[in-house]
Design goal:
By secondary structure, the protein is mainly α. It has one domain: Four Helix Bundle (Hemerythrin (Met), subunit A) (Up-down Bundle). It contains 8 helices and no strands.
Length: about 210
């Protein structure tokens, strides 16, 4: 677990030094990280509106991809400007869940995942949720995902966006890229799940 924490810290330091400082330089001082989080919510609900009312998959995919891209901005800006708040972290976390769930629903509606792939995606999440239950109360109060959790989220967002883009623009190459990202996400998810099981066994032996 110490290695995970060190890797997460290093990733944040590199991202903040590059992306965070760049954002701090180009954005006015009155722009708060929570403004980016709220912008994500507005764009997300716009995508939801377009799909429900117009069924424009092309517009929906573009808007959801923007929402996913903005996810990398608010956290880095908050740390660089020392404006990290519980509310901002909560909105960012909530936005991630909403984006992932909506993309997953769209992918299923367009029949882009086989039952086997669905099981391979869901099962490790169940393992992580169950084995992490003793710490669940703390996790409800703190939103600090590890490097591998962020990697998993990025992979699933890339995967679902490319799979949906393959339908929207009828490009089989997009589907190929999407499935490559998806297999990467599945591997990362199972790695996290097995690591969580190992950690739980170690704690039980100590107790």
């Amino acid at each position: 677990m110490a290695r995970f924490n060190n890797l997460t810290r290093k990733e944040e330091e590199i991202r903040d030094a590059l992306l965070g400082r760049f954002l701090d330089h180009i954005l006015p001082s009155w722009v708060h990280p929570i403004h980016i989080s709220l912008t994500r919510q507005v764009i997300f609900f716009s995508a939801l509106f377009y799909y429900i009312n117009q069924a424009w998959l092309e517009v929906t995919v573009i808007l959801l991809a923007i929402v996913g891209g903005l996810d990398a901005l608010d956290g880095s800006l908050a740390r660089v400007r020392k404006q990290k708040t519980w509310t901002g972290s909560f909105l960012d976390h909530l936005g991630d869940w909403a984006l992932g769930i909506f993309l997953g629903i769209l992918v299923l509606l367009h029949d882009l995942l086989s039952p086997v792939l669905v099981l391979l995606i869901i099962l490790p999440q169940l393992v992580i949720a169950i084995t992490g239950f003793p710490r669940r109360k703390k996790l409800l109060l703190e939103f600090n995902p590890s490097f591998f959790s962020r990697l998993q989220f990025a992979l699933v967002i890339f995967s679902f966006c490319f799979l949906l883009a393959s339908v929207a623009w009828d490009k089989s190459s997009f589907a190929l890229v999407g499935y490559i990202f998806l297999y990467g996400e599945i591997f990362t998810a199972w790695f996290l799940a097995l690591t969580q099981v190992k950690l739980l066994k170690t704690r039980n032996r100590i107790l």
